[in-house]
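Case 575 in the screening queue. Each case pairs one protein sequence with one candidate compound; here the compound is adenosine-5'-diphosphate. For every case the pipeline is the same: read the inputs, emit a complex structure as tokens, and attach any notable structural observations.

Predict complex for case 575.
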Amino acid sequence: MAESVRRWRSSAMVATTIAVLLLLLWASLGYGLWRSRTDALSYAAGNTQRLTQLLESHAARMFDGASLLLIAAENWGRIHPDADLRTDPEFHVFAGTLVRQAGAVRSLTVVDRNAIGHVVAGARLGEVASLGDRDYVRVWSAPRPHAAYVGTSQRSRVDGEWVLPVSLAIGESTTPLWIVVVELPLVAINQLYRSTLVARSDAASLMRTDGTLLTREPFAEANIGRTLASGRIFARYLPDAPRGVFDEVVVIDGRRRLVGYSQVGATDLLVVFSQETEVALAEWWRSLTLYIGAFAAVTVMIIVLGYFVVRLIRRDEASARAQREALLAAEAGSRAKSTFLATISHELRTPLNSILGFSSLLADQAHGPLGAAQYQGYAKDIQRSGAYLLDLIEDMLDAVRLEAGALKLTPEPVDLSAEIDSSLATVRPDSDRRRIMLRNESSPGMPALEIDRRALRRILLNLLGNAVKFTDAGGTITVSATLDAGLVALAVTDTGIGIAPEKIALLGRPFVQVDDSLTRRHAGSGLGLAICKGLAEVMGGTLHIASQVGKGTTVTARLPAHVARSSQAPVRPAA
Ligand code: ADP
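Case 575 output:
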């Protein structure tokens, strides 16, 4: 249960990390794109502004040119108050010169009180039909400032060309003597406007501040004279500022445009340059697609990576869990084995003690002689076998204790040389029987050492037991003990059968024997060396085996040993 919660938690953590990472990634992309969009728009706005300025200065020059021409004609009229401008040849020459010099002006027309036009300079001279319906004529019948008036673009009554008329009344403003009109050809204006357009959706317009469209490039007849007073420029922006740039849906084509407008000086003219916002952002859209594509790819990569990380974590956890379970199972198995061995050993020891006790009574004929002499021999055999079994049980218990880490040490002052003598005495009956010589070569005068006596005896007896067991008649067993730098080296050397080098490394583990065949010559459980090694290690020391096949074996236990404080009076070993 806890396992699945942990696994779920790791996966959730990875998922959350990835989600946060992706969120940051996309947030930064969003911010970057928003910034670059703003930059693109402000760059386009700057362009729009510059082009609007260009149009403005062109319109100003055009208007000034026309005004100057009209004022010159007016001045001529003032100087010649009685002259009939319609017919005066001198004025005609003067007007002709003016029109030629002006360049952008197509013709000069004089309109009389009956609104009849007379073209006095330009391509086609002569009378034109009544111009009373034209705004640039009618405008002078009401009081207005004395300044050139830019009329609505229209087709010329002379030749049908599109023209922009500019008029000025000479004489009283409400009852003018003459109205002088110059016509500017729209073709020329539109040609210039066309040169400012970059994209197909760009547009340049000339307007009057009352909202009348005078011309627009791209040119469309239907647009000329349209009033766009309801548009945003007139309804909102122009009242606030004479020039500016804004981004809105425009009236003329219903599209969102980046519009630059500028009033031409103090005149009623207004120039407008606009480009479609989407077109201005085209480059940005391209980069947007690219970036989104790249980020999507990175996102997919991160998600795939995350997926594999989660899988890896799960697999790791599964194997860790399996390991844990295996360990638990092994521990449980080992505990069960230890408990089983401890119980069995205990159960065996109790009847064994009776067997030993009673067989000893029989062997000693404690309550009188046995019927036949052989019985005494049998009783001794029973006793020997019982003792062997008891030893084995002791070994098993020790092995179990060592494995469970339950062996407790109680160091006490021990006279090592005496202890060796005592152990030699224990194995002597066996060694004598097999004519093996025993020697104690411990350094003389060794002080008493603080050491666990029982553990020391178990080591000595086990090593000596092996030495006797694996040494043939006539051999020698030597026990030596030397003290050096806080370590006592306890070595049991025999001249026995020896151990093959490749087997040495295996020894010291429970139940391992060099000859593990059922037909082996020597009895034994394979526990002795394991116990010696375990005990030496528990005491903080080591066990080392050196051997040569056919020559003999030396097993050395190196144990940490502190000199006992009362070493002058060494304690005698227990018998
Ligand atoms: P066992 O009860 O079989 O003697 P040990 O753990 O004491 O168990 O020894 C394991 C094996 O190591 C023995 O069976 C024997 O093959 C080998 N061995 C131990 N001591 C000696 C020795 N002194 N000389 C030769 N072989 C030995």
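Case 575 observations:
- The two ends are 60 Å apart (CA to CA).
- The domain at 386-563 is CATH 3.30.565.10 (Heat Shock Protein 90).
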